[in-house]
Specification:
The complex is a heterotrimer of chains A (282), B (342) and C (554).
Chain A: H1 2-15, H2 17-39, H3 71-107, H4 109-123, H5 127-138, H6 142-168, H7 172-179, H8 184-220, H9 232-240, H10 249-276
Helix pairs in contact in A: 2-3, 2-10, 3-4, 3-6, 3-8, 3-10, 4-6, 5-6, 6-8, 8-9, 8-10, 9-10
Chain B: H1 2-34, H2 39-43, H3 51-61, H4 67-79, H5 93-128, H6 133-145, H7 150-164, H8 189-196, H9 199-236, H10 239-246, H11 251-288, H12 294-303, H13 307-335, H14 337-341
Helix pairs in contact in B: 1-13, 5-6, 5-9, 5-11, 5-13, 6-9, 7-9, 7-11, 8-9, 9-11, 10-11, 11-12, 11-13, 12-13
Chain C: E1 6-17, E2 20-32, E3 37-41, H1 48-55, E4 63-72, E5 75-76, H2 82-88, E6 93-96, H3 100-103, H4 110-119, H5 126-139, H6 145-148, H7 158-169, E7 176-180, H8 188-205, E8 208-213, H9 216-222, E9 225-230, E10 233-239, H10 240-245, H11 250-258, E11 296-304, E12 310-319, E13 324-328, H12 335-342, E14 350-355, E15 358-359, E16 377-380, H13 394-405, H14 412-424, H15 441-453, E17 459-463, H16 471-488, E18 491-496, H17 499-505, E19 508-513, E20 516-522, H18 523-528, H19 533-541, H20 545-553
Parallel strand pairs in C: 3-8, 3-9, 6-7, 7-8, 13-18, 13-19, 16-17, 17-18
Antiparallel strand pairs in C: 1-2, 1-4, 4-5, 9-10, 11-12, 11-14, 14-15, 19-20
Helix pairs in contact in C: 4-5, 4-7, 5-7, 7-8, 8-19, 13-14, 13-15, 14-15, 15-16
Classes of the chains: A mainly alpha (282), B mainly alpha (342), C alpha/beta (554).
């Protein structure tokens, strides 16, 4: 089965070069994240004050920061942390959201209404502000960035899964499954969820970029990650102090890394959506 | 008749958002409860307050009472507009927020205006010529626009316009500190300067505002243009536009009266969501540009473990957002006759 | 003869798709005189609608006229500029579309929309235009036209929306009206009202009409001349009655045979070798031994929904083993609600259902999957596209009930049984590994039937099983169902809006309206001699050839 699936994927990617590039980019990012410590040319936290604030050069491709640390190495190592935060946050909200949303969408009724209330309350906050408040409440730690990002994402997954299941619950094949002897629970878990999952995976891919920006934003304002840990948001925050004096590379390169990561996941999500449902092509 | 039904609808929507608002209050209360540390300590005279003093404050604040009772007390306090005292400023949080809110709103509204004015025409142009150069340009811009976080684009704009070109003023605050401020009517500097007839001041304030506003706008132009384009395309390809063509309506009538008016409906909805994003982005943009708004106030408080302002800020943002949603909803109801009936 | 109003010469229309260009219309030529009525009949994919849109140059952007000439009076439509087209649209020719509600602007008052159409061609004040719009609403017989001027499409029924559409189309007195499936999706009584109105208006104002439809009967009733299209080509052209009685082209012959009429028998629907019933003896209804309870006995069934609406006011019926009963009604009559309750997919509010002498109504729908009767009562769903799990192969679809209800395990026995089911419904075994999106509508319908009969049920509920199929496919599926019924002694509860189909397939018929039984009885007697006004109205509304002949002769 897997070889056929792979062949099919390869066939589709050949027809969608942008998606193929995005898929390659995303894979590359994850590989960089996995092998960061071996890829970075310098120690990301070793300071070298003599070489502080050097513009990009052959030795330091992305220049050095105020402590003389190699910006390029820091960016590479930061990939690990940024991706871990975003992936685990999105993963948590994906799993919880899919199950809760599917149950709500299928059963309707009281469960649906109370979950709806909870989602309404969450959505009544500007989400970034909510994340901020939660990190403040739970404690200024990296795990809590993950939890906060997961919670502010949750409403979207719940609503998405709910809507997708809701439109399908009265379709012939769902009723046919019941007529063939399936219980409600197994209809939801074994019939509806697998059909909804592809669309949700697309949603997840589109959401990853947002989660990355969000997590980086939180550390930019000083929540979660602490210096000297290399992380894109905090690197931009540190570089911000020197932008008025023209040290652009401190902001531009970590910013570029952020942008490329988000772009890859967004394009991948767009491409997957097009493949899944060509009608939604925009 | 239309007006009455709109008002009725607004009232009904407001009533239906009350549970959410109540939920927001309870949620913030719970957040406050689980905040690290003892709230009484923050409300004491200072970090060096004696044990007895803290104990007295605990009693005063009712922290020795059971949680449900505390919730009631808390709701009572919020109802009276008492959000506690800030350690940093030593002032009442309500007063602090009230002073800083206009700065944040002026920034957000300017950004929203810039975003709408640029995104909607772009989206329409792209939809009218699908596959053209404009279309591809708009789509590329949309794809890139959502990828650049505000804190990066803001800093890069500062680098280009302040450091390289020297056009923009020093990116700190709303006006030069040596500037005389106009008498405050609205709290919006651009309007207050106009009322005072001080055009030089207006220009100075405008120059300070434009970079942060553009930063914030850049981030939301992409989703707005994208939805405009998509809904305009859907609308132009719809059955009713085909009907309009089949009876020979003019191009203008078809595009504006038939297609655009329908296409604008989803844009209104998205604009509400975009506004929420902008309220969040305020935190980042105000930090980058040292903008003296509520968000940077809350952020400073948060980083110095001064929680009353944070809580007040979160409540305020939720409240503003509920009001914005209400406005969006009423606008939508005016634009779409299908809603006002149901 | 004078110059024709419309002349189409060798028209070709090509659509560019992801898989390259597709020719939807391949060399159609026809002409139409002033004031004439012409029917274009064909099944899906025949290119009939595309021809209509090509004539008005309203093709969607992917389609273009790749060859041929269309002339309207002395003007060549194929060479017109967009300004010329705009001037011509509405004033020279106008169109009426399928799905009338979608065809109107949802956020503009209907009076305003008609006024827009008027002002597009004449320089008159907005007030005058509104006055004329009001007159037009009167002309299309909308009640309370003054009030309706300010109404929005969502406040009107589908039939009303179609009348508004007609008002818009005739607002500038065009010489040609093209109606593309104008009544598809409307109830049969509404269809008659709308079509009568359209025919009368066209006759009064001397407008030529092209009626594009999949319904042979409809075209015969309202058009003098009919052309038949198949796969982008025009295969036959004749006077309506001639076409019916002596079709020449093989395709037309098949189409005419497949279209159910008031007298057709299910044995005659399919001609030639494909006829499944030719060799099968008619099955007499088995007489059950005295004292056996009826297979299904429903008493005082009521359904109230959570939102307070009543889906079914009261319903009782009896069904013997091997019998076939039709449940007929228009939308909102409660026929689907009833069938779902009998299938135990939906709980009733009141009443009892006995199956084979045992109560099944006390088992809640949520637990019925464990009941022993689950495998005895099966259902075939309406839309074949929605009735198969997109992630299941045809094999999985048929195997699923066998594994769940008959307790079969994956293995040779299961494979053999699935193959047998597939064979019985005429599904080639090599299609079993395909997914639904790789199959045609008729093949999907067969899989849905195979799935339902896999566990050898005793009662099969058929919920509009052929409503979404083309007539020629419908004919085959109906024959298949009848064959299975005869072979297995199955009982049918046949839910349908199509009277001719029910008359053919069912010994008895129950007519439902607004959740109540209006009339019931032996099918032929009931339709030939209806006792209630409503049933008579239903029967009269069906565009039957026989009635038309009677009308012509009379």
């Amino acid at each position: 089965m897997s070889s056929a699936t792979l062949q099919h994927a390869a066939f589709i990617l050949r027809g969608n070069p942008i998606t193929a590039v995005a898929a390659a980019g995303s894979t590359l990012l994850i590989l960089v994240g996995l092998f960061a410590p071996w890829l970075a040319p310098y120690d990301p936290i070793a300071s070298d004050v003599a070489n502080a604030l050097q513009a990009p050069s052959a030795a330091h491709w992305a220049g050095t920061d105020q402590l003389g640390r190699d910006v390029f190495s820091r960016i590479i190592v930061a990939t690990q942390l940024d991706l871990t935060i975003a992936l685990s946050a999105v993963g948590i909200s994906f799993v919880l959201g899919a199950v809760i949303g599917a149950l709500c969408g299928y059963t309707g009724g009281r469960l649906d209404r109370s979950v709806g209330r909870f989602v309404d309350v969450l959505m009544a906050f500007p989400l970034f502000v909510l994340a901020m408040a939660m990190v403040a409440a739970l404690g200024n730690r990296v795990e809590n960035i993950v939890i906060a990002t997961a919670i502010i994402n949750l409403p979207f997954y719940i609503r998405f899964a709910r809507a997708e299941v809701n439109v399908r619950r009265n379709l012939g094949w769902v009723e046919a499954a019941r007529a063939s002897g399936e219980s409600h629970v197994s209809v939801v878990l074994r019939f509806l969820l697998p059909n909804v999952l592809p669309a949700m995976v697309v949603q997840m891919s589109l959401n990853l970029g947002w989660a990355i920006i969000n997590a980086a934003g939180l550390s930019f304002i000083g929540l979660g990650v602490k210096p000297p840990t290399p992380e894109w948001g905090i690197m931009v925050a540190e570089g911000a102090r020197f932008i008025s004096t023209g040290k652009w590379w401190l902001v531009a390169f970590p910013g570029l890394a952020l942008m490329l990561a988000v772009l890859c996941f967004n394009l991948l999500g767009d491409g997957l959506r097009d493949i899944l449902d060509p009608r939604q092509r925009t | 008749m239309k007006l009455a039904s709109t008002a009725k609808r607004a009232a009904r929507r407001f009533a239906s958002s009350l549970p959410a608002l109540f939920g927001v209050l309870v949620f913030t209360f719970l957040l406050m409860r689980v905040l690290p540390g003892d709230p009484a300590v923050f409300f004491a005279s200072g970090p060096n307050a004696g044990k007895e003093e803290i104990e007295t404050i605990r009693k005063q604040m009712g922290l020795d009472k059971p949680v449900p009772q505390q919730l009631v007390l808390y709701l009572y306090d919020v109802g009276r507009g008492n959000l506690g005292r800030s350690l940093m400023t030593g002032q009442n949080v309500t007063k602090d927020l009230k002073e800083r809110l206009p700065a944040s709103l002026e920034l957000t509204f300017s950004a929203l205006l810039i975003a709408l004015v640029s995104a909607i025409p772009l989206g329409i142009l792209a939809a009218l010529r699908p596959g053209s150069l404009i279309d591809h340009g708009v789509r590329l811009f949309c794809a890139l626009g959502v990828c650049v976080p505000t804190f990066v684009s803001g800093l890069l704009l500062i680098y280009v316009f302040y450091y390289l070109l020297g056009i923009a003023p020093d990116p700190t605050g709303r006006v030069d500190i040596f500037m005389t401020l106009p008498p405050s009517h609205t709290g919006f500097l651009l309007i207050d300067f106009l009322i005072a007839g001080d055009f030089e001041g207006w220009w100075a304030a405008f120059k300070q505002l434009i970079l942060p506003a553009c930063t914030m706008a850049l981030f939301v132009i992409a989703p707005l243009a994208r939805i405009t384009r998509a809904s305009m395309l859907a609308s132009l390809g719809s059955d009713f536009v085909r009907t309009a063509r089949s009876v020979g309506l003019s191009w203008w009538r078809i595009v504006v009266t038939y297609a655009l008016r329908n296409a604008i409906l989803p844009v209104i909805t998205i604009a509400g969501i975009v506004f929420s994003t902008m309220l969040g982005a305020n935190v980042l943009v105000e930090k980058v540009f040292s903008w003296p708004g509520v968000a940077s106030y809350a952020l400073d408080a948060l980083l110095s473990s001064d929680y009353a302002p944070v809580q007040g800020f979160v409540l305020l943002m939720a409240f503003v957002f509920v009001i914005v949603n209400l406005v969006v909803d009423v606008l939508y109801g005016i634009a779409d006759p299908r809603i006002s009936i149901g | 003869m004078t110059q024709p109003l419309l002349n189409i010469e060798n028209l070709h229309v090509t659509f560019s798709t992801r898989r390259g260009p597709v020719e939807a219309v391949r060399g159609v030529s026809l002409s139409l005189a002033e004031g004439e009525t012409l029917g274009i009949v064909g099944e899906s994919g025949s290119g009939k609608s595309v021809t209509g849109f090509a004539v008005t140059r309203l093709l969607e952007s992917a389609g273009r006229i790749s060859a041929g000439r269309i002339t309207f009076r002395d003007r060549e439509i194929t060479k017109m500029t967009s300004a010329g087209l705009r001037e011509m649209h509405g004033s020279a020719m106008a169109m009426i579309f399928q799905n009338p509600r979608g065809a109107l602007n949802p956020i503009r008052a209907i009076g305003q929309q008609i006024a827009d159409a008027i002002m597009a061609h004449r320089k008159i004040s907005a007030d005058d235009a509104r006055g004329e719009a009001l007159e037009l609403l009167r002309a299309v017989k909308i009640r309370d036209p003054e009030k309706r001027m300010a109404a929005y499409p969502h406040e009107l029924s589908g039939g009303m929306c179609q009348r508004v559409m007609i008002a818009m189309a005739i607002s500038s007195n065009p010489a040609l009206l093209i109606a593309d499936e104008p009544t598809t999706g409307l109830d049969v009584t509404t269809q008659k009202v709308v079509m009568d109105l359209l025919a009368q208006i066209a006759a009064d104002r001397g407008m030529a009409t092209i009626l594009i439809t999949h319904d042979l009967g409809l075209s015969a009733r309202y058009c003098r001349r009919v052309v038949v299209m198949e796969q982008g080509r025009l295969v036959e052209e004749a006077e309506a009655l001639t076409l019916f009685h002596s079709p020449q082209h093989p395709y037309t012959k098949r189409l005419v045979a497949a279209s159910p009429t008031a007298t057709s028998r299910v044995e005659d629907l399919v001609t030639g070798d494909e006829n499944l019933l030719a060799a099968l003896p008619a099955a007499p209804l088995p007489t059950p031994p005295h004292g056996t309870p009826p297979l299904l006995e429903v008493r005082d069934l009521v359904k109230r929904f959570d939102d307070g609406t009543v889906g079914l006011k009261t319903f009782s019926m009896v069904l013997a083993a091997g019998e076939s009963v039709g449940l007929v009604g228009e939308s909102g009559s409660g026929k689907s609600t009833t069938s779902r309750m009998i299938c135990r997919l939906l709980d009733q509010s009141e009443g009892s259902i006995n199956f084979n002498g045992e109560s099944i109504s006390h088992i809640p729908a949520r637990d019925f999957h464990r009941a022993p009767q689950r495998k005895d009562i099966q259902i075939v769903f309406q839309d074949p596209n929605d009735s198969l799990n997109p992630r299941f192969t045809a094999f999985d679809c048929i195997a699923h009930p066998l594994m769940r209800l008959a307790g079969m395990r994956n293995g040779d026995a299961l494979r053999a049984r699935v193959r047998e089911c597939a064979h019985r419904v005429g599904l080639p075994a090599d299609l079993l590994e395909r997914f639904p999106h790789q199959l045609s509508g008729g093949q999907k319908a067969r899989i849905g039937i195979a799935r339902a009969i896999a566990c050898r049920p005793r009662l099969l509920v058929l919920d509009e099983p052929t409503a979404a199929l083309d007539v020629s496919v419908q004919a085959v599926v109906l024959q298949l169902l009848d064959k299975l019924r005869r072979e297995d002694g199955l009982a049918f509860l046949f839910v349908s809006h199509d009277l001719n189909v029910v008359r053919m397939m069912c010994q008895r018929t129950i007519v439902l309206r607004n959740g109540e039984i209006v009339e019931q009885g032996e099918s032929h007697a009931l339709f030939d001699n209806p006792q209630t006004d409503y049933t008579r109205e239903l029967v009269d509304a069906v565009p039957n050839i026989e009635l038309i002949e009677a009308a012509v002769a009379g």
